[in-house]
Amino acid sequence: AADADLVQSFGATPIAFDGPRGAVFGPGHFDAVFDGIGEEGFVRSWASLEKGGTLSAYGLSAAVKTNARLLTVGWWLARLRVWDLWPNGKAAKFYSIVALRSAHPNWYRTDLGTLFHLLAEGAINPQIAERIGLGDVAEAHRRLEAGGGRGKIVICP
Fold this sequence. Notes:
Oligomer: single chain
Largest sheet: 3 strands, parallel
Order of helices and strands: HEEEHEHHEHHEHE
Number of strands: 7
Strand order of the largest sheet: 3-4-5
């Protein structure tokens, strides 16, 4: 709820949940949900999808914050795969930039070039919380692990 205004500023619809597996409150169900948290968030995100919708999981910040075991994180990812294969008209995909770069280096370079072009043109405006020097990297990691930040921390050598 504290970040609803930020979510809306990007043209997205903020949603809230009633408990760990509770119902979605907001304007109905969604065609796409982007989840960077993981854990039970994947369950709630999946439940909020309309038939034909896609869950795009792209992060596991809950795993970092709770120091989750590798087996636990593996379960979260396996559940996404099972959901994606289940014949219910929904899709679940995990997006990993590292995996994309390894599997399709040419796509990655092309996409990265496109992003830099859009940034230079002012067509995209990433949310930057702070720019820091290399000497503050350890503190930046502590802040990321604590969660709750609004925007990205950019390291400037």
